[in-house]
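Sequence in, structure out. Go.
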Amino acid sequence: MKTKLGLLYGGKSAEHKVSMRTAMAVIKALDLSKFDIFPIYITVEGQWIKGPQLLKPVEDVKELDLSSTGEVSSGILSPSLFQTNIDGDSTQLDVIFPLLHGPNGEDGTVQGLLELLNLPYVGNGVLASAAGMDKVIMKNIFAQAGLSQVDYVWFIRNEWEKAEEEAYLKVEQELGYPCFVKPANLGSSVGISKCSNRAELDKAFNEAFQFDRKIIVEQGVVAREIEIAVLGNDSPDCSVAGEIVPKAAFYDYEAKYEDDNTGLIIPADITESQYEEMNKFAIQAFKALDCSGLVRADFFLTQDGKWLINEVNTMPGFTPVSMFPLLWNETGIVYPELIERLVRLAQERHAEKQKIKYTI
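Output:
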């Protein structure tokens, strides 16, 4: 019997376009003999729209904008949003695949909705999603877990507006230059700046606070950027490692999605012992956040051979040319198979949760 798979994409986020590209890639890769595909589109205004079953791959990302053709939901908690009508029978979708990046999708909000509806869904749960989205909370948890990382400070917009000079002095005294300023709750390198002086720092704060009320500032480090993909639930496995070689100052949004000015080396040129250590730290980070399904763990490898965890991404870029699928492809799991594994992991985790007793 086919799996009725709901694809949730778009989203009220600066990463809306990235999500749309991801959705198109997944649809093209899905085996229609195994899956019945049902699109659920979230507009940039936050409106939820259900489309009819997809009977063939989507050739243009514009086809995924259901604003004028889909069934607009009167309320996102309506169970009918996640039901379908096949041959006159209304049935619940088997699995939801949230292909959402950034706030209002990758941060635990949608995961909480799906938990309330008791629906199986691909990827991380509420806690891991929320903690993984907030870079400050994530780094605090990593520190508690004993994982090495760069020094960092963080600020709330209201506090910064009242005492800009004190904020800049704190960065200069505790971190120095160069440093990186980032919105705390955003992915895809949106709003990130590298700073080498006070003027650049001021500009970076103003830029980052456009995307979040909380920002984090991290100490610059001379190191290689190495990433590894993690797949699984309670007993996760790691892919081969890959290296990011940006030709720009750092791996920004344009380098990821809009130009070819970045090199990806897969597998990364590291020793077996370095790989084993990285593998251990990646799984340690995965378990510290109570992750499930998928994670991309990003590390710095310093010149003296020390691993520093940078962050994990609980919904990494997921087109066939994104790092997460590329790492698994090199490991031996091709893109369509990777999607199928994630669906199975979602079903396994949901079945495990059904064993929990809620009555006394």
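Check: The first strand starts at residue 3 and ends at 10. Residues 335-353 form the longest helix (19 residues).
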